[in-house]
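I can't quite decide. Please look over this sequence plus structure tokens:

:::
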Amino acid sequence: MLPLDLADVGTSQSGFPSDAGPNSDPLNVGALNQNLNLDLGTISLPLIGTETEGGLLELGEAGALSSYASSPDGQSSVASAGAVGNDGALDLDGIGNGTYGSATVDLTDLLGQAGVDGLTDQIVDELSLQLGALGSTATATGDQATSEYVIADGQLVISSPLVGTLADDLDTALADVGTVLNDSLGTEGALGEVASAVDIDVSVPLVARIQAGGGTVGISGLDAALAEASASLLAEPLVDSSGLVSIDLAEGTISVDLQRIAGADGLNNLPANTELLDADTIGLITGAVTDALGTVTTRVGDILVDDVFNNVGLTVEIPAEVAAIGGLIRADVSIVVDGTLGEFAGTAEGEPTVDIDGNLLGIIDLGDLLDVVLSPLTTQLLTPLQGAVNGLLETATSGLTDTLDAAIQPVLDTLSPVLSGVLTNVVSVTINEQPEPGYLGEESFTVNALSLELLPNADAVNVDLASSTVRAAVAEDPALSVDPGSVQDGEVTTVTGENYPPTTDVVVQLVDPEGNPVGDPVTVTTDEVGGFTTPLTVPEGSDAGDYTVDGTATTGETATTDLVVTNAAPTDDNTADNTEINTEVNTEVNTDVNTEVNTTDNTGENTDVNTTDNTGENTDVNTEVNTTDNTDVNTEVNDADNTAENTGENTDVNTEVNTTDNTDV
């Protein structure tokens, strides 16, 4: 799951037949912390960060990460890395339960190496990728490869001092709202004018007369409400309409939800080699930042109502004099109107309360007096106050909007181009990367759940997370061969088989030219790579011809090869074996024939000689006669039978004739 040169700390390996596996190993965090640095030109950055020392990667619950490799045969291989179980499958349940935690890629140190730190000190001072659990698995069967990957979550976090200044701007704008409200209380303010203009003169028939006017206004809880408003503005992040960007004004950070930027399926199920931070997606990010910051004014308007106007108390006190019994008895009282700004404006539930405070010496019931003042009080105070408070709300909101717009626009104008330049110079993020060829060379396949190219314009270094690589041989058809390829009946040839399934029985059978099995089949078990060698005997007495050898595995795979079968050479047989037989046959069988031939072909004067005695001198004559005159006949006869007389003297001749002429026979 890490670069190949870190294979001893983060990778499992297998190979067939040397180490078929399956092999499964947890990530060796201790080994990762041993002086593993990335050389990035002028700086050397630790690969793995610790509690006391920063680094490129913080791997979350790194000890839970694992790797898996299995090569059960030469034509199949499985590899997995990251958030995977003991069987090599992606551990989706563990990912969902948070078993693996989250990883962080701290890109801050790369800002200086990219040459943008001077430009961005006050604009972007920290940059990081926050990733959920990652895992990948790859499977190869012959020349076909498949893969899966998972990235549980992804956030690009940008710390911007420039964005952080907006929090101060908000506090300033809210303080201005407080100033507006306080100013409205004076005699020349909107609320003060309404209260001071009240002039009431009403009577309770036959009982009393009440005169009131020149009221004063006061508010309560303003500072607390403004503080609450500020806290509310900073407590909830600003989010654009698509949910892509979230801005925390209190922290001055911009978080980009990489799941949303990748599309409907998030970071998973993306096509191979999907570039996450290209020009289009960076444009989406900067647009979403603009949208999110634009929600400030709406947010402020809502908070101004909910946290300020609906919570700040407004009290109007109007001094009044009550005269009774023809003016003989007089008492001073106050008409008190109390409520929140929201109740006066109608933005909150409830209505202001009206009360009379004072001692009427029993002259008249306060309730009766209140009844007579309500109507003029509503006309002269409550209705005008509602309009005045609404005017204040509109003034405060528009003033706040203008102030914030003036603060936000410069931030946007500065931030957008810097974001584009920073991101493209510092890191390139590829999802479901499938480099060609794979990391094991030609005919291998690699999948990286996520690949980071740091300082892409400088081709500095790649860091692959959850990387799995497989390679498998293409399955070849079984094959047979024999050595020697031509054997005499009764002899043995050696049969060699290849490309059969490993450790599988194969039945080897000799088959004659007509397709009939010859002799008993031979059963042999293949080795771990699907090969075997076995002797095969051609049964003695098998006819010469073009035979075949068949090899059929119990799993159905089959192959065949040719074998030539020969018999003993006839010349050798006639020479070695037939001399005595032919001699015997010539001696016993051909007497009459030879006599007849001698009688027929030899002259009369020779008959007596031949009949009476074949002296030594006649031997030559007979031999000559037999040799010369009877050549054709004797040759034919010698092919089949020679006379008894030739037994003695003609043995050598007959033998020669048999040897020479009877070769075919």
